[in-house]
Amino acid sequence: MKRELNVNHLSRVEGHGAVDIVFENERLKEIRLRFTEGPRFFEFITRERLYSEIPKIVSRICGICYVSHRLASAFAIEDAFGVKVSREVELLRRLLVVGEYLESHALHLYFLALPDYMGYPGAIQMAKDYPNIVKRGFRIKELGNRIMKLIGGKTVHGENILAGGFASFPNREALESVGNELRSIIPELEATLSLFDSLDYPEFTSKVSVAVSVDSKDVTEFSDAVSTSDGVRFTRKEYELFIKEETVPYTTAKVSKLEGEPFLIGPLSRVNLHLKELHPAVKKELALLKTNFPSKNSFHSNVARAVELLNVAYRGVEIVEELLNCEPASSEISVEPRAGTGYGVKEAPRGTLYHRYTFSEDGHCTGANIITPTAQLQAAIESDLRNLTETYSSVSDKELKKLAEMLIRAYDP
Amino acid sequence: MVKVGIMGLTGCSGCQCEILNCEDAIGKLLGKVEFVYFPLAQDVNEFSDFDILFVEGSVSTNLDREKLIKGRERAKILVAVGTCACYGGVQSQRNDEASLEEMLRTVYGNVKLDVEVFKPVPLRDVVEVDYELPGCPLDKRQFVYTVASLLNGVEPFFPKIPVCHECKLSETDCLLLKGVPCQGPVSFSGCGAPCTSAGVGCQGCRGNCDFPNFDELLSIYREIGLPFDDSVRFLKVFRGKTISGLKVRFSDEKGA
């Protein structure tokens, strides 16, 4: 006898998804995670466009992690044309990432994830009973937005984030005030970490064994290489040789595998892989938590997000100080196109992101490939869902559906 | 209580995030409105009657189309939010340059998707739309203004004057005079011109102002050294087919 559990519209996730859990004779037969988002043909619409149009177009892949898409494409363009950016540009980009993470992680934790653990349908309903907690979420998000607006020009899809740098730099006063605000948000982020550490997460051990992340000490630093928990290190040029994408009919996102197997990316993978490289003050906090890292419980991605929030704020304070000590550089951008292919990798809030572009001599795009975190996570989430269904075989259908939704949300697809 | 719905079709959710950024306004609204449908933010969503339904994203699949038609049937007022919903968005910029088959083949190879896909189109190609709030993303002040107006029974009004007007108000130097490609003269204002004040030309994300003079702007681009075909493509990114007033053609005859 065949029986199907379906969640047709996943709520509190960015984008559109659905899950089917198929049983036959009461045994799990198949799990399908379907992204039903309409295709937007980014690899097609970037073609024939001038290189300077690319960051603007790919920014629109995601309204939450647009900074990552803009930077990954800028890295790829700079790689193709042999452009080196100034120290000031590098630092401003790193500060921009601090803003991106504050916004994205606070949005996820307080507005998408927390209502599950507090027993509310959403943060708007939760605000009636927990106004101060929701306000804290807003406050962290707001600071992230302010940093992105200051450097990028707008809170969402800031057009000042370009290949080669920025058309204008923020002034000293504005940077000083960002530094002060980052310092003053730290107690809120500590409170966030202890809140998310205190929640009751379902018992769960992921069977996906390999974790992948950009090879840098944390998300505020960039790198040309990617490393895995197996000790493999590969360059951005080798990305497509390791991470293979395939198209399956039931989902409009592609499915990626590493050597034929699902793999993990995202906050939990990053914290697990780079535990020793966290800021000393964050390490101290970590020792006080009931959650132990490294963790194989996918639900702990939420605690990992709170760890990253605190970590990026401390790094942000350091970056601002370094920026204030920088010799003021000119914001003039000099990018000279030439024929070639360039590659960019970047840790987006939800995982490793890869962009590749090929350009003609006069700087027109002739080919592109973008591998998003959601596509790379599809196989891992399906594996976790299978595992979850087996682990919780005795719970009611309603509870299983709820757990499946919480698990998917933990990946923030 | 006024019943409000916020629906997302094919897009990036950036406009819905911008709506969530209206912290103070949402707080004040909660005494007067009830969000009965907002899947991005809550998991109890009722698809019943809406006093106001905001829709983000372009119509790109059969699922989008069905959802939109059902939403329209149940909504007293339907508002398109963002450039995808108003003009089709960046995903529709090459609709006139290639067939759907070519677009699908470039991205998905020869695999046939289960979902029915068509070229991305704005809401107004499928249903009647009461108000349009363009922008990529929409401007949150315009969202608040629209909600406040509708709640008070006032018709929201958006003058279609060019972005240049906002540069004058903010005393931003003209970028075209400095040789930076800018779409301000042909673009619908209302954003407060944040891009030009950051030193980046207007990208035209809010679409056309009234009586846009593309031909004149193209001659300015020629003077500052932007090749003709690239100029047309630059203007097309956010405008979808609303650029059809253009009298010129691509030099390689691919059509503008």
Describe the structure.
The complex is a heterodimer of chains A (413) and B (256). Chain A is of the alpha+beta class and 413 residues long. Among the domains of chain A are: 2-35, no CATH class; 84-206 and 276-334, Cytochrome-c3 Hydrogenase, chain B, CATH 1.10.645. Helices cover 45% and strands 16% of the residues of chain A. In chain A, strand 5 (225-228) and strand 6 form a beta hairpin. Chain A is globular. Chain B has 2 domains: 2-151, 3-Layer(aba) Sandwich (Rossmann fold); 164-243, no CATH class. Chain B contains 10 helices and 7 strands. In chain B, 50% of the residues are buried. The model of chain B is unreliable at 250-256 (pLDDT under 50). Chains A and B meet through helix 1, helix 4, helix 5 and helix 6 of A and helix 1, helix 2, helix 5, helix 8 and helix 10 of B.
Inertia-based shape of chain A: globular
Task: Give unreliable regions of chain B as ranges.
Answer: 250-256
Helical segment count of chain A: 13
Query: What would you call the quaternary organization?
Result: heterodimer
Q: Bin the strand percentage of chain B.
A: 5-15%
Low-confidence blocks of residues of chain A: none
At CATH level 2, the architecture of the domain at 84-206 and 276-334 in chain A is Orthogonal Bundle
State the order of secondary-structure elements of chain B, H for helix, E for strand: EHHEEEHEHHEEHHHHH
Radius of gyration of chain A: 21 Å
